[in-house]
Amino acid sequence: MKRPVSRRARIALGVSVVLAAALTGCSTRGATPAGGTSTSSAKTSLADVKVALVPGGAHPYFQSWTAAGAKAKAEFGLGDVKFNETAEWDQNKQNGLLTTMAAQGYNAFGVFGVSPTDINSTFADLKSKGFAVASLGSCPAGDTDKADFCLSTDVQVAAYKAAKATIAAMGGHGTLVHLTGNNVDSNTQRRIDGVKKAVAETGGKVKLLTTVTDIDKDLQTAQKAVSDLLTAHGNQINGIVTTAYNPAVAAAAGVRSAHLPIKVVAIDDDPKIIAGIKDGSVAATVTQNPVGQAYVGSWALAELQSRTCTDRDPGVEIDSGSFVVTSANVATYDTERQAKTKALLEQFKTSVLSCS
Q: In Å, how far are 66, 174, 217, 244, 301 from 207, measured between CA atoms?
């Protein structure tokens, strides 16, 4: 997900979790191009493009990629769009999976890399074999992205929105806690920065009691962390902002069961979170746009791989959008997200890609 500062030009499209990174990466060198892929400039049909959507492992956030990819295949006439989440959050396994899928004829890859610090070597190897590559859902760490583009949430902006919503629910003052993901993940650090920015803007009216990291591995880990937090500090806390999926679900349930007057702001739109907004136990959530990432990403990858389009700015980062959901718009928020996806597709056609 997108860095706050970059040397490259950015396209800011966003208005209104993610996960643990493996420690090492290896290349996919040695794979041979499949499915007729070539580094030539000759155009091919979109029906010749087989897109692989490959997250770092299983996680609820990515489940909508399957339907979004199928929709892209049907609407744009792609050869195939395959979702594969079997990398098990291991960069070596993800690289091996990508090599296997290339051998099976997949020739365009939308990847959520396991390791933000190592994924660029994987992107470079895929590109060297003539494959179109997108970084979906998370951009590499640092100022370089060797994929054709990155379509991801600007996580610092999303975390800032979530913290602002929490502070508003707290009445503008009090004690706040931040629950988030893997501390070594660059995305987590951007989320931490976003929350700290919102707190700083209160001029001391809000105190950040603690930031709890490394609790998005699974729901059980998050539940234990929330239980420990509420046992130790529940009476001190006025608000909890969560910027990772499992902590969001755990915090909403934990505060409700403890009957504490703590304002909880979540991330994403798990059904339990949406139900909490409707019944008042959750103040708000900030949803992302995984559907837009997979749908628009698949189309753009196919256009690039078919040589119908080229990148205007290789490695560009595009914010796929984040949206604050409260009781006021809980019934209609997905309409805004769908509109954002349509706007993203149009923006790719007119500003991100150059198509003939």
A: 41, 6, 27, 21, 45
Q: Are 288 and 268 a contacting pair, CB within 8 Å?
A: yes
Contact by Cβ (8 Å): 263, 282: no
Question: What is the mean pLDDT for each group of 10 consecutive residues in the chain (356 residues)?
Answer: 38 36 32 40 92 94 96 98 96 98 98 94 98 96 95 96 98 98 88 98 98 95 98 97 96 96 95 94 96 98 97 97 96 96 98 95
Burial zone of 104 (CB within 10 Å; 0-12 exposed, 13-18 middle, 19+ buried): middle
Q: Give the three-state DSSP class for 200.
A: helix
* H-assigned helices in the chain: 64-76, 91-103, 119-128, 155-169, 186-200, 219-233, 245-258, 271-279, 290-305, 333-347
Q: What is the pTM of this model?
A: 0.84
Q: Which residues contact 135 (CB under 8 A, 6 or more apart)?
A: 111, 112, 113, 119, 123, 145, 147, 149, 150, 151, 152
CA dist 7 and 142 (Å) reads: 10
Q: Please tell me the total number of residues recorded for the chain in this structure.
A: 356
Contact criterion met (CB below 8 Å) for 234 and 257: no
Q: Give the tokens for residue 43.
A: 């155009």
